[in-house]
Amino acid sequence: MKSKIESIPKDKKVVLFCKSGARSAKAHKLFSNFNNVHQLEGGISSWIIDKLPILKRRPSSISIQRQVMILAGSIVAIGTLLAITVDKQFYLIPLLVGLGLCFAGISDFCGLALLLEKMPWNKLD
User: Which is catalytic among the residues 5, 17, 18, 88?
Assistant: First the structure.
């Protein structure tokens, strides 16, 4: 599997940014040997203050991380209720969700987040 650094395109400009610019400045130091990686000084806050254009998620949208937590929690709750009321085999549902969350935390790969990002309510305007 390709490392995240190896996946950075070398033929396109890449801009690192965060809210204030502090974290992206630290990250930019890691990419000092990349001529195409730049840092947005002052972060997205400065960009907004300068009234420069940005793409925003729809106002009703909530973060992908929160959506993952809501969906995973709902699946665990429903699986547990089914295991209590219908059949003990339904305990496999919360077990698999828990294992999936552990895998996501260890590997920094969350398939559920990738799936949720593709949902129509998460498209940029």
Answer: 18
